[in-house]
Specification:
Number of helices: 8
Low-confidence stretches: none
Number of strands: 11
Radius of gyration: 15 Å
Shape: globular
Length: about 190
């Protein structure tokens, strides 16, 4: 199984990043958190400092080209900060062009993926206050906690994080593994 990456920018939504990471690791997926700031310590939207596994500069072109998942938590200004990272934008665009997996939750579907054209014509969820931004980018807003559209998974916000993480696991390892992880977490 290829490595997956969860990207962190200052102002990220802590629950969305850490719970998704936890769920993926419980499923034995190889996943690393990645700071886009150049500093391994990234501070979330609610003041929680997290030490990322690596910085974006440590991801080789080859590793980026082989990523199983690119995962984007939301939060503000985290999503805006993710969107302003040119290297991450290039990685997302390449992932999309090669039909590889992308997952984004909360503000990130509208703020990060939408402007890159990744969601044009796709069903997608996002935090409700970003609905108009999502639709301006050509996506079809679906008011659900989690929406899977091809190889793209989007989520609505912090409360949907467990379903979001489990959808990633199910897409990679099947419904039985996702159900086993959920059961072990008493979900």
């Amino acid at each position: 199984m290829a490595k997956s990456y969860i990207f962190l920018a200052d102002g990220f939504e802590e629950v969305e990043a850490m719970a998704t990471l936890d769920i993926m690791r419980r499923a034995q997926m190889e996943v690393e958190t990645v700071s886009i700031t150049g500093n391994p310590v990234v501070t979330g939207a609610h003041g929680v400092a997290v030490q990322a596994d690596i910085c974006i500069s440590e991801i080789s072109v080859e590793a980026a080209d082989e990523a199983e998942w690119i995962v984007l938590p939301g939060g503000m200004p985290g999503a805006t900060n993710l969107a302003s990272c040119g290297r991450l934008g290039n990685m997302i665009t390449s992932q999309f062009e090669h039909d590889r997996n992308i997952a984004a939750i909360c503000a990130s579907p509208a703020v990060v993926l939408g402007p890159l054209g990744v969601l044009r014509g796709q069903d997608a969820a996002c935090y409700p206050s970003f609905k108009d931004d999502l639709e301006k980018c050509g996506a079809v807003y679906v008011p659900q906690p989690v929406v899977s559209s091809g190889n793209i998974i989007t989520g609505s916000g912090p409360g949907a994080t467990f379903l979001f993480g489990l959808a990633i696991v199910a897409a990679s390892l099947g419904d039985d593994v996702a159900a086993s992880v959920a059961s072990g977490m008493l979900l």
